[in-house]
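Hi U.,

Before I forget, here's the chain from the pilot set. I'm dumping it here mostly so it's searchable later in email.
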Amino acid sequence: MTWHSYYPGEAISKTTEPLKLWESERGIVETDRNTLAIPIMLNDSLEGYIYHGHSKLVLDTVVETEQGAIGRPIEKGIDQPFLMLGNTEKTQQRLSLATQEDLSEMGYHKQEEFRSNGEDLLNKFFGRGRIHEHQHSGDGAVFAFQNEANKLDILMAKEAKLVYKAKNKIFLSNGDRVVLKEPGGVICIRNGRSIVVET
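Structure:
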């Protein structure tokens, strides 16, 4: 399927309560009440949402080695639109239609502005002309957050598996296997044993 198979839906909603969009032992993505949400559609199927409100990402990317703890946790506020694919059922039950006042509070004069921003975010995520397979199913989730470099930080999570890719960090976790890549080097951990490669 190509990027243009995905498109923002028509109805713009807002969250009726604070939502935990994803949560595990490693982290959480949550958003406040009255966060705007527009559905991400694939043909006629609901695949996720684009959100814009006051949200937060917390992620434990600290790894324990024989030499001690390496890395720092991530905790940041998210005030730009971001997308989430997967886990749509929880969100659907906690949405109501957004009013013009709700849109104005987030800086939009009309609905089309938010929809256009959502379409731009989808284009950036999928990349024009690229082919993408479905990367989520079941309880899995894929997030794309805009960063200060006008690029996307990506978080993919399903059960015990987690992948986080940002400008200066790659973090992979799957049970007792962990890989952390930062500007100073790469740390690999498996079964409690670690290998540190400085770069």
